[in-house]
Amino acid sequence: MRRRGRARPHDLRPAGGARGRPPPGAPATPYGQGAEGATSLADILERVLDKGVVIAGDIRINLLDIELLTIKLRLLVASVDKAKEMGIDWWEHDPSLSSRARPRAVPDDDAERSLTEENARLRAEIAALRARAEDRSVDG
Q: Is CB count within 10 Å lower at the N or C end of the chain?
């Protein structure tokens, strides 16, 4: 006569066979992965980079209802192609990250002085042209 509620020794064996081994002829799977519907890390990473993921959060430190510090965190994880689709391409213009990016010119005093002189010369030429145009309209 069998008692209800008690497990028999053969009921306690893992479903795969004796001592947790897969049944004969079944492919072995790495620890933690099921045979069906298994998703590898590479598949997950491919999906994340293809679609993009935004992680946002705020950290606030208050003391007696007075806000002392607020840190806003925004993180975008995406592939380069997806980022370009979204209009994000700052790495292409940063000279420390791209050899094609132009380094920013640092204005020196000589360059600034020459620009000021050129500006003054052009303004004088414009004033002279306006004066000639006025003289011709008065004479004519």
A: N
Name the burial class of residue 88, with classes exposed (0-12), middle (13-18) and buried (19+) by CB atoms within 10 angstroms of its CB: middle
pTM of structure: 0.36
* Degrees, nearest 5: CA angle 25-31-37: 70
**Model confidence pLDDT, tens digit, residues 90-140:** 878 887 777 777 766 666 777 788 889 999 999 999 999 999 988 888 776
- Residues 89-101 pLDDT 10s: 887 888 777 777 7
* CA nearest to 60, candidates 48, 51, 46, 70: 70
Q: Which of 64, 52, 120, 122 is nearest to 88 (CA)?
A: 52
